[in-house]
Amino acid sequence: MDWTPYQFFLAALMLVTGSINTLSTKWADVGEAKGAPRWAEWDAHDTRAFYHPFFQSVCMFVGEMSCLLVFKLVFAYKRKRNQRMDIGPQRFSPLVMLPPAMCDMCGTSLMYIGLALTYASSFQMLRGAVIIFTGLLSVAFLGKKLKVYEWLGMFVVLAGLIIVGVTDLLEDKGGLPLNNILTGDLLIIMAQIITATQMVVEEKFLKQYDIPPLQAVGWEGVFGFSVLSILLVPFYFIPAGAFTPVQIPGYPLEDAIDAFYQMHFNKFILIATFGTLISIAFFNFAGISVTREMSATTRMVLDSLRTLTVWFVAVGVGWENFHPLLLLGFAFLLLGTFIYNDAVFAPFLRRSGILAPSSDEEREPLLTPVAGDAEHKGAIN
Predict the structure, then answer these.
(1) What DSSP letter does each residue of 72-124 carry, written as one string?
(2) Residue 5: how many other CB atoms lie within 10 Å
(3) Average pLDDT over residues 26-42
(4) How many CB atoms within 10 Å of residue 257?
């Protein structure tokens, strides 16, 4: 089936905004500027890197919150045009999205710390570990029985992760300290355990309460922003200078005021931060729309192209060097992802008659117009 112009637009939007999200965050990380007057003694002779992972996570949640606004605006627009919308029963408390929001908060913060310490390409590729942890957790907590090709895909992904990790440790990709690279890679992998937990919890609640994904993302943004914004206050008073790349005695776990000063002194950091905020909103919308309008496999392919785009751009701008071994690792990650998502081997065996046919899951658009003049009278959360 040929893609419509709208589907081409969604695919391009997901690829571009997803790539921008990672690249803009890394762009801010490599930017340097003087900071708040509190650290004037250390900034007097030199600038320093923009290291504010928790502040960047707050910005990311602002982008996610905008998804809730979009959901409500689209619903209001359709209702005004007297078009009923299939948005589920809306019989749920928004608080059911609090647990996945907390997972999102912890996972994103860890990933942003890892991204500041390691390479953008490694960050993007190591996120493939989420397949392994999601598969294992779905067996443990959702009672799923993984098929043979899913186990095979997980093992191929594991091989790819090992290759990427070995490349980071043995090859000079851009002059980052080895301890930073190792710590960053481990934090990213740890974050995937939390992200996998988030996905399992989301799957349970979205199916149980029939929550539209765009609405769910928006509520996660609301809770994540609220909780992490409050946590920025105690983080300001917790010394962590020895455990951060800042290397300023007494520097706190997070200094949001310092972040604003650095953005003021370096407009490129400000632009990169806004890029993270805006791109995450469009990426979430595009990703959900691609899954609904086309398929999860299409979304998987686009996310793989996103990894490749991030890698090529990072090499092109000089953030890291190109190494063929990393290309092999990417190939294993891509192949494992395809196998896990039933896009390799199993379809061939079905066409050959070796495996029984598998019925595709019915896909539905992001917001489905329902025929008739009646409009949805219930309140939405």
Answers:
(1) HHHHHHHHHTT-EEE-----S-GGGGHHHHHHHHHHHHHHHHHHHHS-HHHHH
(2) 7
(3) 92
(4) 16
